[in-house]
Write a structure and sequence with these properties.
about 675 residues, alpha+beta, eleven-stranded antiparallel sheet, seven-stranded antiparallel sheet, 24 helices, about 45% helix, about 15% strand, binds arginine, binds aspartic acid
Length: about 675
């Protein structure tokens, strides 16, 4: 019954209401979208995308290390993902003598490929709708506790059955649509994954945080790995005797290029989206949470950047931390702006008003909207207190380190620079003092502040020659305890009810939609499971009187090149190639393509995803989104939301001309 409802709604949504190119679809249900895909240029079938019995495109897509996507591009287990996805591994192998971050790394023979303990690559074996089995024994009116218990029990059985007799598999059951549907996922997990190649960071991270989340973009954001298997081609722990994995499927590479209007498809593991949120939650994000968190991170970034500019050693220590702080900081700004510009809150409010009218006399739905409003109002203030706990109080490095038991001390001190942390303490704790109302402020904080007379004096006492770890730990313990004792329980219980409401609201939105042909295309929110997004190569207008075309090139890198600016200082070898116009077969109109944008709906986790053409061949590697469209995690605007991909020809050019690693090109199947 439930299944049928979902199918009907999917089919309905495939018609005229379709908001162009929004959606992250389940590969096993892609049959419901295939007609639309084909109308937009796709040449293959649903069975080509996902098949239980035969090899299909899905067999070449992997979950890379849990947080990214990767894809197989040769019959010998060669894998491509982003540079920023392999960054940790590249860094781990780097030292002053072998600075692969700065100089890049290329294994010229198989035995030069570097193992990466801890890194895994997972192939989806199959996925299956197990809603009926998960809900087996459920009766209407069952209490929430009983329901949860039942689901846990059934899920355990399903997982045990799927695991039976198999090793190196990872099995999970995941809820979709806030628990209206459940899917089983069975993965094969490989743990011998070796680093094969990476360009210098000045190419792989070109533009750094200055260009991050932006178009036009010129980042050569790729790295290469190889999956190894035991002699039986099955997953095996690292061993010298392992052999390159023979995949069921690998992507052929289309080097003939793309053009505006071409069909594109992204096949990967998007992490988290919230497309069905109630308006008040979106409002909180755009007007409260994001602005406060942005302001707090601006304080930190200003201090970090100032000190990093003064001293190269400090710059190296804080490079990765700074990138992390900056990544979300920049995204939150784009997201808040996008939500407001799109009038997403007003649109949702209008929808909610119509929904309420429609729901009159339908007991399961008719009070949803008012209840949401009450619940969100009840937690608005303490949600902000929570944000300040994590983004201000706990964001002081020493406080978090001491409070969490001084774990990883060696690494902590290696990358620690006290003057930065001290200034952050002063700035962040002042902000907490100013912006958090007295009744929400931790008593310990108030006592200490009174005792020392000022945040500055308090800082002097902690950040001494030998930092006072005990004081830092006390701050952490006391303020977190205050929050956990007083606010966390309320927050948790309200959030539990909110989650429950969403389960009903989700159903309600679908029924409403069916009844009125209302507003939205339904696809489950991203939850780190495999999805298909499709669209076309397309420019956009970020603001009045500005239009961005969709393809960038090496000439753009040269325009930005500046030895004085860290983010734009390219390797001399690349300058030389440009000066000599030594582009080989990768030349297009006198330059080499670097990146392109398209309308595929993607999010964090889609980094490294294969970008495919109408025939299912690889044309790019997804790595980011445009800044003005980062609200797509909450609301997607087809006019503005674009994913950013590396043009695969730029990777081929770098491998060929900069790395001279022809042997890698030879194992790929390149359509020229
Ligand atoms: N914005 C991209 C993503 O969300 C890439 C981030 C890595 N690069 C950086 N400069 N911080 O992951
Ligand atoms: N850069 C993101 C990632 O690492 C992708 C995105 O958010 O668009 O997954």
């Amino acid at each position: 019954m439930r299944k049928i409802l979902f199918a009907v709604i999917f089919l309905l949504s495939g018609t005229s209401l379709l908001r162009a190119d929004e959606g992250m679809w389940l590969p096993s249900e892609i049959i419901l979208k295939i007609k639309d895909m084909q109308e937009k240029g796709f040449k293959l079938t649903a069975e080509d995308i996902y098949s239980i019995n035969n090899s299909s495109l899905k067999d070449a897509v992997v979950h890379f290390g849990g947080g990214c996507t990767g894809e197989i591009i040769s019959n010998e287990g060669l894998l491509i993902t982003n540079h920023h996805c392999g960054y940790g591994q590249i860094q781990q192998h780097s030292s002053v003598e072998h600075d692969y971050l700065t100089n890049g790394f290329w294994a010229m023979t198989r035995d030069q490929e570097l193992p990466n303990p801890g890194l895994t690559v997972s192939f989806l074996d199959y996925m299956e709708d197990v809603t009926e089995q998960v809900m087996k024994g459920y009766k209407k009116g069952m209490s929430e506790e009983k329901r949860t218990e039942l689901i846990e029990k059934n899920t355990k059985k399903i997982i045990e059955k799927a695991k039976k007799g198999r090793s190196s598999v990872s099995v999970s059951v995941k809820p979709l649509y806030y628990g209206n549907q459940y899917y089983l996922y069975v993965f094969k997990v490989f743990s011998d994954v070796r680093l094969v190649g990476a360009p210098p960071s000045s190419i792989g991270k070109f533009g750094g945080d200055t260009d991050n989340w932006m178009w036009p973009r010129h980042t050569g954001d790729f790295s290469l790995f190889r999956v190894y298997a035991g002699p039986d081609n099955e997953p095996a722990p690292y061993s010298k005797d392992n052999v390159p994995y023979k995949p069921k499927r690998f992507f052929k590479i289309n080097a003939k290029g793309i053009q505006e209007g071409d069909f594109t498809m992204v096949y990967g593991f998007p992490g988290r989206t919230n497309e069905y949120l109630f308006s008040d939650a979106v409002k909180y994000t755009a007007y409260k949470s994001n602005p406060h968190k942005i302001a707090l991170r601006t304080l930190r970034l200003d201090i970090q950047n100032r000190e990093m500019a003064k001293d190269p050693a400090v710059r190296i220590k804080y490079a990765s931390k700074n990138a992390n702080v900056s990544n979300a900081w920049k995204k939150w700004q784009g997201e808040a702006k996008g939500i407001i510009k799109m009038r997403a809150i007003e649109n949702k409010q209008e929808f909610e008003a119509n929904f309420t009218k429609w729901s009159e006399g339908k007991p399961e739905y008719e009070n949803l909207v008012s209840r949401f409003r009450e619940l969100y109002a009840a937690i608005e203030e303490i949600s902000l207190v929570r944000d300040y706990q994590s983004e201000a109080l706990n964001a002081v490095e020493l406080v978090a380190f001491a409070g969490r038991g001084q774990r990883g001390a060696e690494r902590f001190y290696k990358d620690y620079y006290m003057p930065i942390d001290k200034d952050c303490f002063i700035a962040l704790y002042k902000a907490y003092d100013k912006n958090i109302a007295d009744k929400y402020k931790a008593p310990y904080f108030k006592e200490q502040l009174q005792k020392f007379g000022s945040v500055e004096a308090w800082a002097e006492a902690i950040f001494t020659q030998e930092p006072n770890l005990e004081m830092a730990a006390e701050i952490y313990r006391n303020t977190n305890k205050f929050f956990n004792d007083n606010f966390a329980p309320v927050l948790d219980s309200v959030n539990r009810e909110i989650t429950l409401l969403y389960r009903t609201y989700m159903m309600g939105q679908m029924e409403y939609n069916k009844a009125t042909r209302g507003m939205k295309v339904f696809y489950p929110d991203a939850n780190s499971t495999l999805r298909v997004a499709y669209g076309q190569v397309k420019g956009y207008s970020p603001s009045d009187a500005v239009y961005y075309t969709p393809v960038s090139s090496l000439d753009g890198i040269i325009e930005k090149d500046n030895p004085e600016i860290y983010d734009y200082n390219i390797p001399q070898a690349l300058r030389d190639l440009h000066a000599a116009k030594d582009y080989g077969e990768w030349e297009v109109n006198g330059s080499v393509p670097v990146a392109f944008i398209a309308t595929n709906h993607t999010t964090g986790g889609n980094s490294g995803s294969p970008v495919l053409d109408a025939e299912g061949n690889l044309i790019g590697v997804n790595f980011d989104r445009v800044w003005e469209g980062t609200m797509s995690d909450v609301v997607y605007d087809p006019e503005i939301c674009r994913n950013i991909s590396l043009d695969i020809r730029f990777a081929l050019f770098i491998i060929d001309k900069l790395a001279d690693a022809d042997h890698l090109l030879e194992e790929m199947e390149i359509i020229r």
